[in-house]
Amino acid sequence: MLKYVSRMVISAKGAYVGLAYPGSDGTWQTESKGYQFWTVTDANGYFWINNVRMGKYNLYAFVPGFIGDYRHNVAITITAGSVTKIGKLVYKPPRVGPTYWEIGYPDRSAAEFYIPNPNLKYVNRLFVNQTTERFRQYGLWDRYSEIYPTKDLVFTVGVSDYRKDWYFSHNTRRKNKYVGTTWEIKFNLNNANKNSKYKLRLALASATAAELQVRVNDPYWAKSPVFSTGLIGDENAIARHGIQGLYRLYNVDLPGSLLVKGNNSIFLTQSRGGNGFIGVMYDYIRLEGPLT
């Protein structure tokens, strides 16, 4: 039986809103056996979802330009021929303090970062003049090893441009074998509050057999990182010439005692090796200071 849901309201235009069953991790992304119904809010934040199959659903939403997901706190039961009005939904993106710096644009894709020209031996002429699908060229994962043959990517906040200086995939480097890599983000602090915690927001657009580790001011600091994702991802976006897979958001506490007044560095290590397709794609990174 079919029915429709009509005239719900969300507080942001251009939001993606959908009815779905939760997957194995509680989100809509990993649900593969049930039905999903999605739409986009209009300029005033209104949306309609028509012709929904009967059943009980969760309502999810996400908004380009903001990190995280919205999930309605009450399940919605759809019955034949009915109209359900939800009312106003307000999504408050996660935040604890002011933005010190950010890299990228939060849209669940790595498309805004630097995508190199392909090896001349593998050029696909369909995408030579493309500006939006350059990532579809063959073998771009190996270009990282050519562009950074001995040292990894270093990004300096306030100097570097993520559209030119942040590689679109944090994958392995090809030596005698494929090995993990460590990227460095350099930034300056006018003051470091030693008794507070800073928040590092790591939004990933994709991951494949990867482990992302975070260290502060020493790439080899202790044997244990400040944070590790553990082994994550099997999307194969790097190997399949994609630009996004499953979205993941990690909210990492950085003790102020690890930071100093002046020059600081955050090291992002993708520690797994083995082949050229292992790695992560970043969607967006932000450092928030403590609340004052």
Automatic annotation (TrEMBL):
One of its GO terms (molecular function) is carbohydrate binding. The keyword Signal applies. CDD domains: RGL4_C (cd10317), RGL4_M (cd10316). Keywords: Signal. Gene3D superfamilies: Carboxypeptidase-like, regulatory domain (2.60.40.1120), Galactose-binding domain-like (2.60.120.260). The keyword NAD does not apply. It comes from the Eukaryota. InterPro entries: Carb-bd-like_fold, Galactose-bd-like_sf, Polysacch_Lyase_4, RG-lyase_II, RG-lyase_III. Residues 12-85, 100-287 form the Rhamnogalacturonan lyase domain. This is Rhamnogalacturonan endolyase.
